[in-house]
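REQUEST FORM: STRUCTURE PREDICTION
Request ID: SP-0412
Submitted by: Lab K.M.
Chain count: 1
Length (residues): 623
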Amino acid sequence: MKSVVLFEILLFVCFKIYSVKANSFQLDSFPVDKEFITMDETGLGLVKVSGIAKGNFTKIDLIVHSGTEIFYASNSLINNEAPFGFEVYLQPWLEEYTFSLRASDTFGHSEIIATSTGIVCGDSYLIYGQSNAFGYPHDTIGASDFLRTVSLSGNELIWQKASENTGNLGVFGLLMGRTLLEKTGMPVQIVNLSVGGASIDFLSNRNAADPTDVSTQYGKIIKIATFANFKNKIRSIIWRQGETEGSSGYSVAANAYQAKLENLMAQFEQDFPELQRIYSTQNQVLSIEVFDNFSGAIVREAQRRVAFENDKVDLISTHDLRANFDGLHFDYFGQYEIAIRIAKLINSQIYLNAEGDAKTPMISEAFFANAEKDSLTLVFDDEQILQLEPIRLNRRIQDAFILGDGVRITDVTAVGNRINLKLAGSTTAQRISFLPSYINSLIAYNGYQGPLVLNQSGISIASFFQYPIEEFSVPRLTNLKHKLKGITFTIQWDQAEDAESIEIKKYINNELVNTFLLPGNSDLFSDFPIQIKRNNILHYEIRVRAFGKFSIPTEIHYETCPDSLEVIENSCIDCDYHVFENMILKEQILEGGNYTSSKSVSFIPGFETSGGVFLAEIFTCPD
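STATUS: Completed
RESULT:
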């Protein structure tokens, strides 16, 4: 009889706990399955768990696992009608988090009342634009546990492990996310709200009274970003649009594009206050069958100008992706290359990790190189080293540059970050363009297939349209002389009037190695030590700055260790040896060559010789 009573009591208790679990908790905040937690500026992702317990409960426990390990465990002592809350700061690890909430009652029983799995923490990115922001389908790309996307159904967020067919992501979004995941080593969330064929008017339409108004495409962005809690945490936005206006055939639409693009960039910065960078692709040269009235070139120029004038915007050139372009869209491999370029910039600019140079060279200055106006110099970013494709598919590089008066360009050379153009005669043009506005798609190839100007990473310079040419004004240095004596290269000149400063750029084998800034009244420059190696080409560019403008550069070339021996006063150069009568060592000899003396070596007081190896050789300069 006793055993029957005991069974009835236990049955009653179990039934009571089950009923309480279903009805006695109000969860106000708890993560859902596969939720992506976006990091804030601290590099951590905050998750809040809160609610109210209604019943005979004494304790609430929250346990968070990272993989199979316990990452966080804490409890809160409570009583009836008591609120409870926890704050958990997640690390951006390549591990999935599991949250478990357990309640204990006055009878000593406990039970899990809520769980969520597959949660990750990392950075969120937004892609926005038209069809090229999606990319062509590619069936072989699979999902990744740590690449996520989120979409909105009514007021419900749907988080998913990202694959090509999830969340409107597209092949470009998937490639972008996977490349970022590989480079940063942390989970990545990509949200793509692009619309194929959409105009900038459609994509930028914003309800000022309610920016989350989902009757506009822009409002959908803000609503998802707000609900998914990355609006104030997003790192960067990737913008890819302009084909609609660039192929419209109407210059009216193109002419208005720059102001509209500037307005959209301002909206991004307003609605995403912690936004660090915006990456904007410059359109390829489009193939269109109707005369475009320069609409393609005008749109590309607007994209270039906005990036040049806005410090938060980086332009991504696509002109060198010729084999991966059909005249309007990029193929899988073109999309992949664009993703790599943007990911490199994000990795270096946002995460401050060293990367190969992925910046697109942009023009910063164009001026006549002489008073006769038959020579031009184009200046690009300082860190860029430019190289030419002289000819491609029977097209010459000089034909890619266009002067308004039709004067023919006879020669193009690249030195460092400058391009020099020689003309067949004097020009009356005041502006210059690079690349045609469009290519007629009826011809045998799609888009521009001719030669380009590339940087050291093989990325084409950004195209420009009707860029203003400045008049020749500041005179160059005069009466320049240079000589190599010992291991010191000296340049002398006549002092320049009204000079504010003198800039000297030093290149070795066309690679910029140093920039020197001298006072305007200088008339001497000494470079020590020079690099002594066979057939090294030393190249110095010297510019005068006066009245806020630079002069045309004066250039000096010097070949070290030539194949034929050269005698200069008491010194000579042969292979890797630089020999002179007496060598005085004032500081440690740097790498770059072996230096020998034919008679004596002396050390100034305090010269550190420990750890050094000195070779004495007898060497005679040739007659």
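NOTES: The first helix runs from residue 2 to 23.
Reviewed by: T.R.
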